[in-house]
Every structure is written in structure tokens, then in C-alpha cells.
Amino acid sequence: MRPNILFIMSDDHAANAISCYGAGLNRTPHLDRLANEGMRLDRCYVTNSICTPSRASILTGTYNHVNCVTTLDTHIDNRLPNVARHLRAAGYQTVLFGKWHLGEGAAHQPTGFDEWSVLPGQGEYFDPIMIDPSGPKVERGYATDIITDKCLDFLRRRDPAKPFFMMCHHKAPHRPFVPHPRYAGLFADEDIPVPATFDDDYANRARAASAAKMRIREDMTYEDLGLIQPEGGAEVGDVLLAEWSMRKVPDPEDVGGLKLIDRETGEAYTFNRREDLHRFKYQRYLKRYLRTIAGIDDNVGRLLDGLDAAGLAENTLVIYTSDQGFFLGEHGWFDKRFMYEESLRMPFLVRYPRGIKGGSVSRLIATNVDFAPTFLDYAGAAIPSYMQGVSLRPLFESGAGAGWQDVAYHRYWMHKDAIHNAFAHYGVRDARYKLIYWYNDPLGQAGANAGDEPPEWELFDCEKDPLELVNVADDPSYAEVFAAMLAKLDAKMAEIGDVPEHDSRTVLAARRLAGRQGA
Ligand code: CA
Questions:
Q1: For the chain, how far is it from start to end, CA to CA, in angstroms?
Q2: Which long-range contacts (CB under 8 A, 24 or more apart) does 189-195 make?
Q3: Which end of the chain, N or C, is surrounded by fewer C-beta atoms within 10 Å?
Q4: How far is the CA of 342 from the centre of ligand 1 (A)?
């Protein structure tokens, strides 16, 4: 019997917020169970660190310049083939419950699924509207519980004559990080450890780092932090977006006049020092975020128990991942978008008792473009030639040899979006180094602010500098590494058919003239 495939994906769940990844921020016993009974991937990378494009890559097995879902606003053309269609054609029962975020309406809604029920757009945490082929309805309860209930219900009434492919897509822990009240007491009497780079000053980095509006100190809203937004205009904080009423919690030099009020308990907070306000924001953010993760962990436990009860655990490939990584205060940030490690790295846990050794860890390169070919490989179905990834089955089952892929490619297209002001960039990461080209959209492909920032290169030695604090692109002792990584970037872009914004001969010639590159 071909294996069932249960693909569980959350939204914006950083690997550092799963206890088996070792960051020590929280406890996730049910997710850890998957790692203990299966494999943990330490170098699974996203090809575009943002929700909608990542989902398109997972579904189609292609990069975003091929599936055309390059930004949050470019929804999927559902005439494209996708992995669910191939699995259904191969005899699988295919279902999708939860977040879709690839667009609504006839042109964008899910195809290839026997059943689907999805949140529109980002969806709501409580009493969400969910859309299925018959239309929208309100579902009462908490989104993470509701989505899991739909999956468990399917397990009870599935067609036992067919293997199934189930996508369980949680909305949590996406901003604004709303936990269920049952977790209100979690972390109440403890402080979450503050990352070493929380007070990063962005020296020695490309300008993109200091320009990003993703700072916990300055850019989180009252809603993000579960605080009452006072009545008022600019004096209570800057708006998040010109046409929205949601405002950011201010970061004044003098914190003496600031009073913040908890939305649930009415508790009031005042501050003596600006640094105390910064730490307060960090703790509020992390605790709310980690409480929504507790909801996911418990619900993953329910789903694994459901598999056990149905006698399906042995013959089901179970994957847990997130559509990208997330900053949890590293470099002072929340959010994602960047090719820096916390945002680039996807958590990835996989269990399949018939093929994967329990408690194993892989440090080989994998990306979200590889997921669709992996599903098809396990289903015994042909991997279509349009797909650009590779099956991860050899990696899972310890059969990946010396010829395994050695770079992950990332490209972020939304140059200077109105909320986050993140710059457009692309680059490659191999086992040790990361090369990033901040091309900053000279042709205005993302629509605005074309070419207003000169391009920059960044090179990180992730072994010597795992926190990515020192750009060594212009360090003469890394000239050879720069040239080698540039060659890897060119080879990868040529292989996948993406069009470079740089010309390597010109880049290297200019570096030689500047004395940064040997002959
Ligand atoms: Ca996301």
C-alpha cells in the first residue's frame, strides 16, 4: 500500500520556536515527538521568504519566476498544474484544510483537491470565515482547533481503499499573534531569553538591514502586542499603512508619559527607561507568539493521536514545516522577507517509520521547491519535467550521496513594500557561505521605488559568523570565496532560468580595479 501523506504547515513558525531545534525558548513536546520518531532538517530553506510565493513553490515544485507568484499580490493562476492534481491522478484522495493565501475566486481557488475548506486571505483567529466549493461560512471557535477538527473528521470518513494526501495549513502563529485564552497563563511568571543580537546596530551590513521597518522597538502595533490602542491620531503612534487605522506603539526618547494597557486584563504599564520599554515589547511579542505555538503543538498532538487511533501511523509520511522562518528578536526584528538565516530557514520535521530512522538529523540542503517532487516520489508517481526541485527521499532515508545539491537559491521581489520597507535581493547559501545581492529592483519590476538604492553585495561566513554580523564581501581575504559563490549563483540562476540583475564579468572587473579581487 502506498503511503499516506500528511503535510502540516503553519504560517511564520521559526525553527527557534520548536524545542527540538534547541533555542530554549519554549517546549513543543508533540512536534518534538515527530523529530524523535523521525528526522529533523537543519538546512531546509525557503526560496522566497514570504507567505504567498512560498505556498506557490510548495504546490507547484517551481521557483517564483516560473509560477509567477513573486509577491503577496500576485495570486496563483490555478490553470497551472500542481502536486495535488498529480497525486489525485495517481489515485490519491486529496484534501486541503486551513490557510490557502493564493487568492480567491474561480481563477485562484484550490484545484486538484477532492475536498477543500480554506480561510480567505490571512483569515481570522476566532470565528473565522472559511470558504469551500459551496461558498463562505462562519466557523465558530479558534482557527487552529477548527482546522485540526476538519483533518480529524476527514481521517474518520476517508475512503480506506485509497491513500490520502492531506494538507493541514494553520494560520497561526501569523501576526497579530492571537493565542487561545487557555494559554493566557503560559510564561506568565518568566522572562523569555533575549537574543544576543537584539540591540544590533546594523554596522558592517548592507543598508537594507537598517532601512527595514521590522524592528520590535519601533514597528510593532498595539494589536500585535495585545494592547489597547488609545483614541487619537499621530500622538498615539504612526499608522502601519496610510489607509489603515492600526497604529504602532511609539518609541519615545522620554518614556515618562507613556502608559500602555493590556487589552484583556486592563493592567497598566509605565516605564522609567527607554530600554525597559524595548524589553517589554520583546516579552509581549514573544509570549503572544509562543502561546499561539502552544496551540499548534497541542493540535499536532491531537492529529498524531488521530493517526494512531486509525492505525495509520506506520504507513503515513508526516511532515511539519512552516511557509518560511521568522525573526524572534534576532537583529532586533520580527517578521521575515530577508535571506538572513532566521527568516530563510524553514523548520522541517518528517516521520515515516517504514523508511526514516528515528532521532536522525540532516544538515544537507533542502528547499521548499523540493517538497512536491518528494510527495510524488513517495506516491510512486512520475515527477513531471516542469518541476525544478529534487525528491528529498534519499536525504530522508540516508541515501543522499556526494552529488547532493549544494546551494539553496532565494529571491525576494517586493522592493520597499509600504509596511516593511524590505529591499529586493537574491542570492545563494551553501553549507558554509551566503552571498546576497541587494539589487534593489532597478527596473521597477515590483512596481515602485525602482532603482532608488544603489545595489550592494553581502557575503557571510556562516561558520565563523553564524549570527551574520560582518559582511565580508569587501574583505580581500574572502576574494576567492566571493568569486566562487558568485559562480554558484550564476550557475543556479542559469539552471532554473531566472534572469540576473548583475553581470559577473563587470562585477569582478570592478572589484579588481578597486583592489578587492585578485587577478
Ligand atoms: Ca508566512
A1: 59
A2: 191/283, 192/25, 192/282, 192/283, 192/286, 192/287, 192/290, 193/24, 193/25, 194/279, 194/282, 194/329, 195/328, 195/329, 195/330
A3: C
A4: 13
Cis link prior to 120 (omega < 30° from 0)?
no
How many angstroms does the Cα of residue 297 sit away from the middle of ligand 1? 17
Is the residue at 345 inside a domain?
yes
The string of pLDDT tens digits covering residues 208-225 is: 999 999 999 999 999 999
Partners of 135 in the beta sheet? 132
Where are any strands of DSSP class E within 353-416?
360-362, 366-367, 408-412
Quickly list H helices, 179-273: 207-211, 216-219
pLDDT of residue 401: 87
Number of domains in the chain: 2
Q: In the structure, what pLDDT confidence band is assigned to residue 447 with cuts at 50, 70 and 90?
A: low
* Mean predicted confidence (pLDDT) in 325-345: 98
**Residues less than 5 Å from ion ligand 1, measured at CB:** 11-12, 51, 323
Task: Give me the pLDDT at residue 519, please.
Answer: 62
Centre of ligand 1 to C-alpha 20, Å, is 21
β-bridge mates for residue 250, sequence order: none
CATH number of the domain within which 497 lies: 3.30.1120.10
* 387: CATH: 3.40.720.10
Ligand 1 mean position, distance from CA 324 (Å): 6
Query: Position of cell 494538507?
Result: 167
Ligand 1 centre to CA of 50 (Å) is: 5
44-45/129-132 β-pairing: unpaired
Domain with 438, as residue range(s), is 408-513
231-265 pLDDT, tens digit per residue, is 999 999 999 999 999 999 999 999 999 999 999 99
More confident residue, 399 or 126: 126
Helix or strand run (H / E) with residue 484: helix 479-496
Whether 60 and 109 map to the same domain: the answer is yes
Q: How far apart are CA 486 and CA 278, in angstroms?
A: 39
Counting Cα atoms < 13 Å in the Cβ hemisphere of 67 gives 33
Asked if residue 191 belongs to a domain, the reply is: no
The verdict on residue 198 lying in a domain is: no
Reported as a single tens digit per residue, the pLDDT across 42-92 is 999 999 999 999 999 999 999 999 999 999 999 999 999 999 999 999 999
**Consecutive H or E run containing 56:** helix 51-60
CA 120 to ligand 1 center in whole angstroms: 14
Distance 518 CA to ligand 1 centre (A): 42
